[in-house]
Amino acid sequence: MYWFYMGAKRNDAMWELCPVTAALLDSVTELMHCKLGDVKFSLLQPGTHIRFHTGTSNARIRLHLGLVTPPGAALTADDETHGWHEGEFFAFDDSFEHEVWHNGTQQRLVFIIDVWHPDLSQEKREELRQTHLHQLVDE
User: Which DSSP letter does residue 120 get?
Assistant: First the structure.
């Protein structure tokens, strides 16, 4: 994983390594307000299997953008299996159990962005944002 943001923490090294992506992220600041999630590149090696697991909160939705999408890689979430396609997004609630595997022969690369769940009110988002920021200060 190559993080631009991990929760509310920005990884300045990625801004230097990937200036075009960083500029795009800077232009869509509303996406960066979901402090309960991440923004990152995910590189998956052939032969990898990430067993069933869940995300930390149902207050967010996880977006995957396929960048390098060889055959043989897939994700199962909520009893549905998805492959990735270059240039296409798919979204899922990662608070449900999901798993990933890659039986292909080339690396798979996706860009992951966590955004607020659309059913959350602005008021609830702000409450969660403030709670999360206080937790970061206390760490």
Answer: S
